[in-house]
Specification:
This protein is mainly alpha-helical and 293 residues long. The chain folds into 2 domains: 98 residues; 125 residues, no CATH class. It is built from 9 helices and 2 strands; from the N terminus they run H-H-H-H-H-H-H-E-E-H-H. The chain has a two-stranded antiparallel sheet. It starts with 11 loop residues before the first helix and ends in a 10-residue tail after the last helix.
């Protein structure tokens, strides 16, 4: 019986057997009638053929209906399986897209951090164009193949590999600490000898060093030489094997005034106005409006 109200379901095998029994019974009845009534032979043969043909059509219909039901059931199963696969595919595609978006976002953030202004008066459009060029170079450049087992392969030909974890942790901890009391005179002399643009460039290098030593950083430290004065003063030095520069030991001791965290010691108080001015200048939003408006 069917579970649906108002309908009755009978197995096709039962219908087939019933049709066969009806055919046999009809033929038996026909034979008995012919024997008793002595009916016309041609009429009897015609009637028998009609009964057989009807039964054959019924059986054929039952077989076709069975095949059709099996095909429909299989199609339904395939539909359910396909729906499940499509749902899983959508979920995996969405997860992959989110991963790609996250990677692109981190890569773009790293590229922006690696791209600094060439001059104090560089237009924002030129800076944005150079960011786009650097991003394209990083995302499309193939990794270098390792020439030997002693030299690790480079993840990118645009920027160095991330530093070893222990080295990165040491540098990051150092840059987050305040200059020592006996370093104050050297730090003050190094910073007060710089103009505003060189101070901003020094902030760029210190910010890049801190960002590049974070856990999971995409690249190691390194920026293009934006201020020859920093190089001449020994605050910035060339990275061996690269056309990039990073803070020297002397530069790290001076620039950590900008990146130090926590409460400043009392001997740092004379340099705090300089730290505040540089950090505020860096965080100031870009304003391209004309003063003569």
């Amino acid at each position: 019986m069917s579970k649906e109200p108002g309908t009755v379901r009978i197995r096709l095998g039962v219908v087939s057997v019933a049709a066969l029994l009806v055919t046999v019974a009809s033929l038996t009845t026909l034979v008995i009638v012919v024997a008793i009534r002595e009916a016309d032979l041609l009429s009897v043969v015609a009637l028998a053929l009609a009964i057989i043909a009807f039964s054959a059509q019924l059986i054929i219909y039952v077989v076709q209906a069975t095949d059709s039901a099996s095909a429909a059931r299989r199609a339904l199963e395939l539909h359910v399986e396909l729906s499940g696969l499509l749902s899983e595919l959508r979920e995996r595609t969405g997860s992959t897209q989110r991963s790609v978006d996250s990677i692109n976002s981190r890569l773009l953030e790293a590229v922006i951090g690696k791209t600094q202004r060439r001059s104090e008066d560089e237009a924002p459009e030129e800076f944005a164009e150079r960011v786009a060029e650097t991003y394209a170079a990083v995302s499309q450049s193939p990794a270098r193949s390792a020439p030997s087992s002693d030299t690790p392969s480079e993840l990118s030909v645009t920027f160095p590999n991330p530093l070893p974890e222990a080295e990165a942790k040491r540098i990051r901890s150092f840059m987050h600490g305040w200059p020592e009391k006996d370093e104050l005179d050297h730090v003050s002399a190094a910073l007060t000898s710089l103009d505003d643009f060189s101070l901003r460039m020094l902030w760029n290098y210190s910010s890049d060093l801190v960002t590049s030593t974070r856990p999971g950083a995409a690249f190691g430290p390194g920026l293009s030489a934006g201020s020859p004065k920093l190089v001449r003063s020994g605050l910035v030095e060339k990275i061996p094997g690269w056309k990039l520069y990073s803070l020297s030991e002397k530069g790290m001791r001076a620039a950590r005034l900008f990146t130090a965290e926590g409460t400043a010691p009392t001997w740092i108080e004379p340099l705090l106005p300089l730290r505040k001015r540089v950090r505020e200048e860096w965080s100031k939003p870009i304003d391209n409006r004309d003063d003569d408006r």
